[in-house]
Task: structure prediction
Amino acid sequence: MPANRFYNAFDSETLNQRSVSPSEYRSAFQIDRDRIIHSSAFRRLQNKTQVFLSGEYDFYRTRLTHSIEVAQIGRSICAYLSQQSMLLDEACFIDPDLVECACLSHDLGHPPFGHTGERTLHRLMQPYGGFEGNAQTLRILTETLFNEGREGMDPTRALLDGVLKYKTLQAETPNADHHYLYNEQERWLDFTLGGQAFPTELTPGKVRNQFRSIECQVMDWADDTAYSLNDIADGIHAGFITPMKLERWAENQSLDEAGEIHIQKLCAAIREGHVEKKLNSSIGRYIRAATLVPNSTFLSAMTKRHQFRLEIDPVRQTESRLNKKIAFDLVFKSPQLQQLDYKADFILTRLFEVLKDRYIEQTKGNTLHLMPATLEEEIEKAADANSRARLVCDWVASMTDNFAFRTYRRLFDADFGSITDFV
Result:
């Protein structure tokens, strides 16, 4: 198969040279994807919250099923653009394996209990450099994916650029609640950019965080498509979104004609029992809403990945935002989910405080073994409190919902803790 002219050696380069077998049959991006799929970090997504706590019911989405759906949509966007765009051809196209890998990777860094868990860990880690889901994904890919020896997967530059939605260091926006990278990740950001400095107009924060490769833009729209449609579906199936609630909600919104029609059609689909059919058919419309347009950035001379911009039909963008608002107001802000959010915050806070006392502050006389021995050894070797806190945070963030619940109960529930509870 002839080489895809969309990519060059700059795109497939890794920070440390990979050892590749002479009989290797995969591209660098296929190797990236396979390493993600066969990792424990990817498997743990099957028991991490998307909307509802994992295990509540079998048919609700988890972080794993969401990531798989995002990957399928991402590949479909690549196929559509290759077929429709005059800027691409059979020998020069956006690599679907690379986009799939970025999509499968994009939520690896999310902690247990969804965005509540992320907010809680950010609050608890404030004195030590903060916590951010996208930054944690980068940390997993580059430093901790393979637990033996605490090694990353040595990802290609194009994969890193495809995953990094945010390119602002925490020190550059110290008051930000999210959308930053950890300060110690500067070398990976520098590698991703090929050593090029940001131009002055790309100021830290929101402006700079909009600077994305075309694969990252495809991944982001695939993610928006999946959760703006599928969170609605899960909310309907769970009974949080009903025609009556939706119509009452719409009465208090400033909807234009298109928005009112969308609400009417959604209510009709719920009443007729055609929710999955309607929302699944919408995925195709969201895919076809993407158009490739030429673009120029300070990296355009080095890679085609920064020579294009993904333009989205404003109608679909508006519809996507409306769906997100419906889900946020009727599902995420419901008393039931807010109660679970409170519980999740409480559990993670108590877990972290215990580990902080033992491992970060290293309170004199506290020698209890609360974490795996290999991690304890690393913490003992860590240079300072920030480094120790990051290692503790790695472990807490890696927990599945159920593991976090069980660990909490072992520490604080007097009726829990027989030998059969320790597996």
Observations:
- Residues 1-423 form a domain with the Hypothetical protein af1432 fold (CATH 1.10.3210.10).
- The two ends are 48 Å apart (CA to CA).
- Confidence is low (pLDDT under 50) at residues 55-59.
